[in-house]
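Two proteins were folded this term; both appear here.
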Amino acid sequence: MTTVRAIRAELRAARLRSRPVQARRARNDKIYMVMLGILIYGGILVQAVRRMIAAPPVGPVLTNLPVAQWLFIGCAVLGLGLLIRALLVFGPVVAGGPFQFWLLSTPLNRRSLLSRRFWWMAVIATLIGGLLGLASSALLRADMAGKLLSTSIGAGMAAGLVAVCVLLQQSGRDGGRLSTVLTVTGVLTAGSAVFATPPVVELPVVVAAVVIPPIFAVIRAYQALDTLDRAALTGGADMLTATRVAVSWFDPGLFTGIAASRKWRRIGRVTSRPLPGTRYAAMLFADIRRVFRNRAACYVWAGLLLTPYAADRLIPAAFVPTVQLVMCTIAVAPFASGLRTICRSASLRRNLGGSDAGLHLIHLVVPSAMAVAWTLLTSPATGFALASVIVPIGAVGFAYRRATQPSFDYSGAAVDTPFGMLQPDLLRQLFRGPLLLLLLAAVQLYA
């Protein structure tokens, strides 16, 4: 029986025989772009790593090192819980297009077919995790031993994350319980670090728990590649395609639409009840009911309440209102889904009746209430400063600006820059909303 390596060699040879000039040109262009990327981005990465390694363990330090250490641990565990859900949405090992129809249906060894994708994903995750660990230790002004330990911890956690997700994909589980346990553990750890005085973390004790198990998990995940069926391999192909298109066209709506449809298909059914009132009152009750059905947004809203208090214990007091503004914006944004739906559908606005201003205002009630409540609960961290008044205004303004943003227009004039051709009008559309936050943050700093 033929092997996967032989088939790949035959495909490359067939491509050269059918279109020799075009195939060689495409191959040379690909090699050139890869080498250029390695030289440019690799050089930037090397310089960044050298600077983080050379950062002296003296100078300005964080006001509370144990709190910072436990916050980083809590955020790392919380991030693992969230990333498990995200990776399982995409696969993480994905097969689509010709690979799915022409190769997965053959009696070839499936592990040989998928090993390249798995190892690339594991290596990239290990590098990203190691860099995040090194950046964290550089931020904490650790010595060389601390930087090495933190880098190894980050790399081990990232590699273990990929391996666990592959094992969950092979077993057909959605990883909901594991993700919930890790998320709750991370939030509790971060909360205890904020409101208590934790001890200093001894990194060698943590290394044994987060470096050795991922090695066995990666080996077990590689062995499980042979048992991945086509349903598991193709489940995230549509999400991956939507993500690529959304990134290429700078339009996150292409991704959020498919993600929302998947979410409601997973829920299956909800209890249907009539809406009280007429027109605007019914729209308001529909928005309130949407809040109670979107439990994930409520959890995010509640979890982000810790961030201003953590910032108050770690960074200078002048920057705490800025953290409060940004976190409030992130917490309130999911509750503006009704406003986004109204703004993106002209036919829905015509069917509902009333003026556009009235429809916008009635769908701003819930985001405004959630922003005011979030600000009141976090204002003790800022001392009820006058700058905190800007927080709900900025959060609601950002949600309104993003929801009322028209479709992207790609027909604007392009300008030749050292970074390539850029469209100034496209940049203006991309920064609709973030510029408002930047202005309000500047007002807070100098208020």
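Next, the second protein.
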Amino acid sequence: MEAVEVEELTSGASSRIIPLCKNLRRSIFSHESLRRFLVFLQSVFLFLLLLLPRRRLPSSASQPRSPPSAAAVTPSARKFSLRRRDEEDALRRRALAEGLEMVAETEIGDGIGPCRWSTSLFFGVGRNALFCRSWFPVNGQVKGIVIIIHGLNEHSGRYSQFASQLTSCNFGVYAMDWIGHGGSDGLHGYVPSLDHVVADTGAFLEKIKSENPGVPCFLFGHSTGGAVVLKAASYPHIEGMLEGIVLTSPALRAVAPFFSLVAPKYQFKGANKRGIPVSRDPAALLAKYSDPLVYTGPMRVRTGHEVLRISSHLMRNFKSVTVPFFVLHGSADKVTDPLASQDLYNEAASVFKDIKLYDGFLHDLLFEPEREEIAQDIIDWMERRLSAGTLDNMNKLQWMNKTFSDQSIDE
């Protein structure tokens, strides 16, 4: 039997590298069977890690007197202490988020920036305070609105250059930090449920639509944010508010442990993405990993489980996708799988859909050296979508007028 050629790719935002066969569909084992087997092995491995005995401290005879042991602290007191610590950390991150300059100095002329920007707080479905940003053209003319949903472990402030390019083409921009990210409430890097992020995205969209009646809206999502956007758009009432969605490097295929419900805040050090290149621009890498609002610690197990859960759900339901979409992916991405984006494009029932794969590009497309060209590809697609929507409305109006005229003649 001819040997099956193997190529190393990553599976989803969990960043664990797994072997995928180029000729997998023709091999004895299906891709789904391989994925489940790897998930099982990883879950067993991580569960065994939890069972390992903790390193004991030296005996008290050789140590100075220590404060009261953790056992002397009541569970309620410990819980209050942890909650207080998380709240203080969120406030610290919020102050940092407020202090970010959202218009680059090189883009400011005569003291007037190319766009006006602001920050605000939005209370999500769980009543958590979520940090939000907005950018609008200084001329006030807006032909559409783009709502940015960032990726796992990052924050909305990283997209200021993209926002400036959008506003220069008369698009308004909003962005929201997830729970546990950027300037929002929650333990840094911890997502109890991506369904909450999906619900917050829908509620945020409803708020923006109510404040901007009649203005077409697009949802943009990167990486795990792309998975959030795709799932949000699967709900008819959300899809009905959208002109389309844009997905860059969406996390549609991932591996993460199943036992996260047992130890949801446990950190799996093997999931640290810092060692995996996400951009070919060294300055972009340095900026990302020196940003205090970017979570660079080990992935929390529960968060990894949530990535697996939402990606598995989406992979099973590609055929039911009907929203207009544009998916963009780098062929050399080592964090999320470009083949999954191709599967989405091939299987989705959407009438208006497009895909663009960038040869040799990595995960963070909008932070690659060609970021301006990629952003322009997104802008061009949205403008084509707006033109198509206008034509559809004109055809619908003509059909209604013709129907009314025919009824009048019959009468």
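The chain has one domain: 93-394. The first helix runs from residue 31 to 51. These notes refer to the second protein only.
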